[in-house]
Amino acid sequence: MYENFAYVYDRMMEDVDYVEWADYIEKLFCHYNVKPRDIADLACGTGNMTILMAERGYNVIGIDQSHDMLSVAQEKARKKGLSIPFVCQDMRDIELHRCVDAVTIMCDGINYIVEDDDLDLVFSGIFAMLKPGGLLLFDISTYYKLSSILGNNIMVDDDPDISLIWQNYFDEENSICTMDLTFFVREGSHYRRFDETHVQKAYKSQEIIKMLRQKGFENVNCYKHSTFETPNNRDQRILFGAQKP
């Protein structure tokens, strides 16, 4: 997964306003009265958020399980003259040499953890790596989005440089959305095809809130994305905040 996708990911995500997203994260820092210096950005992908936060003066470490994604991230940081450590680790088995003030997991990172036991490991590891008072921020694609917007639908994106056929299947019993992606990427006068399958779990907010509290987090809240409003059942993305005592 992500082996080929890593090199077209940024072109597919050009419509995402990462600056607005970073602004929102900083507003959440203020909302929780946290002034982080050291941040771990888990499931950092090609480093878009990692780099933005580093440019804003934070000491950020980017962590992802994909070597290819991290290779792209390192090259982008190098071109900007930034010295950002990028580490290849699975967030179910995270290990850092020092604790951090905040952990961020943006753009569906948690949805890719499809087993409850594994999510328990993720939250336990994050709790251990946060300093007292440290903050965890992460977003998810909602149950509604994965089950009703993406689930059991076929989508086509016909771009001159990258065409995508996106076939989705939603398993209601296990709350799993399987996404079969077929890419056609222009290379000179020809197109190269590659296929990937992505699997995401559709979590309900109360399930996540309960698990975070069981791990020892406090001030656990969820918000409609880029706001401080309470989510409704038609929101497609929500963000969670949780603080270590």
Helix count equals: 7
Strand order of the largest sheet: 3-2-1-4-5-11-10
User: How would you characterize the largest beta sheet?
Assistant: 7 strands, mixed
What gap, in angstroms, lies between the N and C termini?
36 Å
Spatial extent as radius of gyration: 18 Å
Give the number of DSSP strands: 11
Query: What are the secondary-structure elements, in order, as H or E?
Result: HHEHEHEEHEHEEEEHEE
Unreliable stretches? none
Q: Kindly state the percentage of residues in helix.
A: 25-40%
Global shape: globular
Describe the structure.
It is built from 7 helices and 11 strands. It is of the alpha/beta class and 245 residues long. The protein has a 7-stranded mixed beta sheet, with helices on both faces. A 4-stranded antiparallel beta sheet has the order 6-7-8-9. Helix 2 (18-31) crosses helix 3 (48-55).
